[in-house]
Amino acid sequence: MKQESKGKINKKLFADRKRTNILSNPEQRLITYLVPKIPNWLSSDGLTLIGLIGSLLITASFLLAKYVHVSFLLFGIVSFFIQWFGDSLDGRIAFYRNKSRKWYGFALDIVVDWISTVFIGLGYVFYTEGIFELSGFVLVALYGWAMIVSQLRYKITGEYHIDSGPVGPTEIRVIISTMLLMEVLFPGVLDYLVFALCLVLLVNNLLDTLKLLKQGDERDHKEKAAKQKNVNTY
């Protein structure tokens, strides 16, 4: 494939969203490379299902690590890649094939993302013990909060962002995969890493929420000013 055609594909695939995450450039290049190679029989919904299966496999890796051996968490890292593959390519393949369904895809993506988050959180709850079980619940709640902020931002600004500054879903996957590797090497450390991740997400969500409220306030002022202008015109 010529470089020019790759550029055209890249522009087409990512025209609907603005990415600010650290790994956006290499991630987009990889997706641009993979999309044309997806067989025709594999649909966008099929890729969504693959992503969901990846999430279930992550849950399974926690259970196997709990009841068989901690090294099964390495299977969780592979499962995160499976989840990324399905979740990242489902919408892009629809754009590539000119079969995108904006609101159907948007609704399906949000629902499946939430189901996946719950299953991954449950996997950690099953794996850990004692007070740290609460961390799994808190992690799911905080990620849900981040999802809500993302949807509200879309409603207020009209721009769809799935990233929170330099960190997006891909970075979260990489971070958690690194945490799983650390747990295999140093059993017991995962509980404290999850607690630290919860603190980071809490601070980030608070900052994003304050920014969102400011954007909402600015839109309110603009709409009121526009209404007042219309009244004065008549």
TrEMBL record:
Entry keyword Magnesium: no
Transmembrane segments: 46-65, 70-86, 106-127, 134-154, 174-203
Pfam families: CDP-OH_P_transf
Entries under InterPro entries matching the protein: CDP-OH_P_trans, CDP-OH_PTrfase_TM_dom
Keyword annotations from UniProtKB, A to Z: Membrane, Transmembrane, Transmembrane helix
Keyword presence, Transmembrane helix: yes
Name assigned to this protein: CDP-alcohol phosphatidyltransferase family protein
